Amino acid sequence: METGKQIDILLIEDNIGDITLTKKTLSKSKIMNNLTVIQDGDEAIEYLSKKGKYSEATTPDVILLDLNLPKKSGQEILNEIKSNELTRHIPVVVLTTSKKEEDILRSYNLHANCFVSKPIDLNQFQEVVSTIEDFWFTIVKLPPKNAQ
Amino acid sequence: MKKNFIAALWDAFNNLLYKNTILLLFYIFSITLLSLLVYWTKVSHEIINTNAMQNVASRAEMLEELRVLYTNDVVNRAIPYGIGVEHKYKKNEDSIPHPLAFTSELSKRIKDNGDSSIVRLFSDHPPKQLKNKYIPKDDFEKSAMRFLKRNPREAFIRFEKLNGKQVLRYAIRQKIKSKSINVLEVIYPMDTSINLINNIKQISFILFLSIGVLGVIVISAVINKLKHSKIELEETVKERTKDLERSNEELEQFAYVASHDLQEPLRMVASFTQLLQEEYKEKLNEEANSYINFAVDGAKRMQGLISDLLEYSRVGRMDHGFKMVDCNEIYDLAIRNLHGAIIESNSTITKDQLPTVQGVELRLAQLFQNLIGNAIKYRGDIPPKIHVKAESKGDSWVFSFQDNGIGIDSKYAERIFQIFQRLHARDKYSGTGIGLALCKKIVEHHKGKIWVESQEGKGSTFYFTMPKL
């Protein structure tokens, strides 16, 4: 584990409750993380392509993506991330309430890196977020920050 | 055996009737018409013959009566006066006709007046000078002579061909006592009658044929109308089915969206009440904490109901493509999935050889797992013993899952298969009450039936049927 290194996480999620819960869980994390939250699809794309007010944005190390979003749907965002050379190396964790097989299959077909259903129980939710954190930030070797 | 044969024949007939209705009806009509015609011809022959016989008999009797009258009241009275009785009476003005000549003359005149029958007289002792005229001439007359000698009061009758014409010949014996046998014969030509029969035949044939053709046309029209209605009905059914499919799709969409969208707020309720508890535990008293527990429990149960409802709504509508499924493999799969519960409850589960059926593997596995899982869940104080088997009955398999659990009061035997029906308090046995409703829906989707036989405290046996391959 490379201590001291800060991980940039982009959470694309419109539900304030989930944002709060995710924030809370991540704040208890041992890993230094910088969480950016974006609540609608169009803005997420702007952020990732560093357009407009996001020209100074950092490229995230990991994206947590909800499927149910206003304007652009999660799957459209996923498709854009994975078809753009500048962003397709960024791991995308689909984090959603859906358990529908079609959603799961379609997400993986669009090259989602993993698909996680949000559990209803708070403890389980916290466990899931910690596991994601643990897996992606400590176990997995992420691509270098400025990879093309 | 015979009954079966008749039943098979009847089935074959019905099948043929269904496939080639008009053709078959045409055949039936033709056969009926033909037999009617044959019968009618026979009957009309008989009528004509009887009629001819009556005519000829009355004619013969009349002639004979005339001859008797003439002989008794004319000839016998004339003789004492010396009046000659002669055959050739026309040449002698002082004589009267001999009865034979009288009858001959009479019949000749009748014939000249348009009657087509011929009258003949013959005798075994004809007058010498007219021997050639009055002797029996052909086979009929000779036979008649022999017959009437033996049976003087009867008539000798024969239908035969004479000079190329069909005739009825009728012979009776002279009624005046005499040493010789004198016979009166009437030859009655049948051609008029035969012509009449032929006419009747022709007319009836035309009549029957018209009725038949008309009948077939009417029935064909009715059948065509029926077929048309059938097509219309089929189209309506197709339309309805399409509507139903569409509404099913909508329902599926609705169920998914509803459950998905309902879960979101539920998760919020559950998560934040829990968060509240987690972060303010110390500041809240025990009562407040129990309230939070109720809220969390309610939200979780609600979520369970929603996902069960979603699952229930998917059975059947999402299950197309039946495949051959070996129930032994399904059983093994269910046992593997229930491994934890089996070990924990110390269950003994056995099975006989199970058949292969046509079905949806996932659903059958759900069915087996639910039934075995229930048997484990509703166990008594002793370790569960569960036996699974299938017996052949008619064209179905009857599967049975027998356990030694707590059993069910028979008055609830129907209710347990309804969705979200529970017989036990939630704290005693968990669950939403979807399991058996799901089983029922799965079995019915596989064209089977499900039921339970049980006594409280004595275990239950769940049965379901599956059609054989």
Describe this structure in words.
- The complex is a heterodimer of chains A (148) and B (469).
- Chain A is α/β, with parallel strands linked by helices.
- Chain A has helices spanning 16-27, 41-48, 74-83, 101-109, 122-139, and strands spanning 7-12, 33-38, 62-65, 92-96, 114-117.
- Chain A has a single domain, classed as 3-Layer(aba) Sandwich (Rossmann fold), CATH 3.40.50.2300.
- Chain A has a 5-stranded parallel sheet with strand order 2-1-3-4-5, with helices on both faces.
- The longest helix of chain A is centred in the last third of the chain and has 18 residues, at 122-139.
- Chain A is globular and about 40 Å long.
- With 469 residues, chain B is of the alpha+beta class.
- Chain B has 3 domains: 25-189, Beta-Lactamase (2-Layer Sandwich), CATH 3.30.450; 225-314; 317-467, 2-Layer Sandwich (Heat Shock Protein 90), CATH 3.30.565.
- Chain B has 11 helices and 13 strands.
- Chain B has helices spanning 2-19, 21-78, 99-112, 131-134, 139-150, 191-280, 286-314, 327-337, 339-345, 361-377, 435-445; strands at residues 84-86, 95-97, 118-123, 155-162, 165-173, 182-189, 323-326, 348-351, 356-359, 385-393, 396-402, 450-454, 460-467.
- In chain B, strands 8-10-11-13-12 form a 5-stranded mixed sheet. A 4-stranded antiparallel sheet of chain B has the order 3-6-5-4, sandwiched between helices.
- In chain B, strand 4 and strand 5 form a beta hairpin.
- In chain B, helix 2 (21-78) packs across helix 3, helix 6 (191-280) runs antiparallel to helix 7 (286-314) and helix 10 (361-377) runs antiparallel to helix 11.
- The mean pLDDT of chain B is 85.
- Classes of the chains: A alpha/beta (148), B alpha+beta (469).
- Chain A binds chain B through residues 15, 17, 21, 24, 68, 97-100, 118, 120-123, 125, and chain B through 256, 260, 263-264, 266-268, 270-272, 274-275, 278, 299-300, 303, 307.
